[in-house]
Design goal:
Blueprint (H helix, E strand, L loop, with lengths): L4 E6 L3 H7 L9 E7 L3 H10 L4 E3 L2 H8 L3 E4 L3 H13 L3 E5 L6 H14 L3 E4 L6 H10 L9 E6 L7 H20 L3 E11 L2 E9 L5 E7 L9 E6 L4 E5 L3 E5 L21 E3 L14 H14 L7 H27 L1
Parallel strand pairs: 1-2, 1-4, 2-3, 4-5, 5-6, 7-10
Antiparallel strand pairs: 7-11, 8-9, 9-10, 11-12, 12-13, 13-14
Helix pairs in contact: 4-5, 5-9, 7-9
Length: about 350
Amino acid sequence: MDEQFRVGIVGCGNHMYEFLLGTLKWTPQAQVVAACDTDSAKLARLTRIYNVPGRYTDLAAMLATEKLDAVIMAVGHLSNAPLIRAALEAGVHVFVEKTPCNSAAEIEELIAIQKASGKSVMVGFNRRYMTGYALAREVSQRPEFGPVRMYHSQFHTTPYRNETIFKVNHVIHHLDLARFLMGEITLTHVDRVAVDDRRVGYNINFVSPQGGIGVIQSASMLDEIYPMERLELVGNGRNVVVDNIKTFTYNRPPVMRKDAYRPVSMDDAGDALSWNPSHGFYPRFSHHGYEVELRHFFDCLAAGKPPQPGLDDSLLTMRLLDSMEGLLAGSQGQASAA
């Protein structure tokens, strides 16, 4: 844990500036020594506020000069692939924000390069590390919960630039979360509703390997100010609900109270368990998973273990996006034939 890693930042936009870089205060083994962005104004803002000494507008120059151990990358799926490749070929570990690439084919190419390099690539599907969803996974795997029979998630947002970007950058989060909680799911049907190219919604139906059924509902029709995210897992006479990311409830079968004349009391073995963060306490971290996933990345590097999810794992999520596209195309073809 005392090992120090020389880290470079790739992409100095709002996500890196407001979220990712600040979470490294919980990861003392990460020493940020340089940052790179083609936008000199974004580069100057980030390096000034975070006191990063090395400033570059060209990744090749940063990799050649700084002798880095790892990079943290947040530039967007359209540009990620060549940057990940350059880092791996320079012998540098990579943490890349989701979505890692533009297509499953791009990830397959990068997997071959990664294996040849001997370096690690971790993809930032942060919902796997969010407190509420991590609790949902832990509870749903307890023997008393039983296999998850039903799954329902809602994941809404504001109007996107276009439908393609909405799917690749937003919907993919809950496709990955469903895999994380339910195993290697198979999509069975997708319904679509649209106001225009920026305001689109889907119901995505799937089955799990254990025989569970689920639906992911996602749309770009609301406003990010509103609570937009919810998950429910139904098991053996009990369920788990994660509401608005930070409120977790585990509803368990209570002991039957047949005597109406006895005072009601809490049943420690059966009544609901609830967790939510105190907003009055000085915040240590956000519960959005960024702190935990980056700490996991560097802890794994120090231990010589591959951090998760890696490219192999993320490839399966990208293939679900391809499956969704195929189901949408099929339903549109049936509608045209009708």
